[in-house]
Design brief:
heterodimer, A: Glutaredoxin, globular, B: alpha/beta, Rossmann fold, disordered N terminus
């Protein structure tokens, strides 16, 4: 699984990265995490708002920072 | 590193750390009042009030568009008439509306023509701004 955190480095982007790392640990799922901070690269995901999170190229969250519990749900659903 | 909070309005992506993320949905229907919502939504977008977004994408349950819509802090919905296609589409998608205007409630008579005036568009934009204030 590859998780991409889309955002240019603001506090909310950092919080999303922190929550995602915690959620991965809680879910017991291993994943490669990549931070995508270039606006042109972020735009390729067709997100309107950042921070955003994509799993295996599919945007799952945009414009908000879900709590760890919600991210665990998202990650487990994506892991199948 | 770039400061996302200073991202210019023209940028394709807005960072949410600097303020509210607002989406505008218009019924854009096949009548003067429907087209009025479309024109007003364009003006509101160009004026920086929010991003005009695709109601059909919500009706079609397009995954990426749903994720974007769910990320908005506020949603403005504009319906031409009380059939309320925009409101019902958003409600069905569980997207809460923060600001809602029905054009016929504002005194514009619905007709199957597309003759809309700049004054009507400006009036609808002003009504939205009033509700948001």
């Amino acid at each position: 699984m590859k998780i991409q955190i889309l955002g240019t480095g603001c506090p909310k982007c950092k919080k999303l990265a922190e929550n995602t790392a915690a959620a991965l640990q809680e879910a017991g799922v291993s994943a490669e995490i990549e931070k995508v901070s270039e606006v042109a690269e972020i735009a390729k995901f067709k997100v309107l708002f950042t921070p955003a999170l994509a799993i295996d190229g599919e945007v799952k969250v945009a414009g908000k920072v879900p709590d760890v519990k919600k991210l665990v749900e998202i990650i487990k659903a994506a892991a199948g | 590193m770039a400061d996302c909070c200073s991202t210019p309005k023209a940028a394709p992506v807005d960072c949410c750390c600097g303020g509210e993320s607002v989406l505008i949905f218009a019924c854009s229907g096949g009548s003067n009042v429907g087209q009025l919502t479309n024109e007003a939504a364009k003006k509101l977008d160009q004026g920086g009030v929010g991003k005009f977004y695709c109601l059909a994408g919500i009706g079609g349950d397009i995954a990426g568009m749903m994720v974007n819509a769910e990320g908005a802090d506020r949603i403005i919905a504009l319906d031409g008439c009380d059939v309320a296609c925009a409101r019902k589409t958003l409600e069905r998608a569980n997207l809460p509306i923060s600001c809602y205007v029905v054009v016929t409630d504002e005194g514009v008579e619905k007709g199957h023509h597309f003759a809309i005036s700049d004054e009507e568009v400006a009036g609808l934009c002003a009504r939205v701004q009033e509700l948001l204030a």
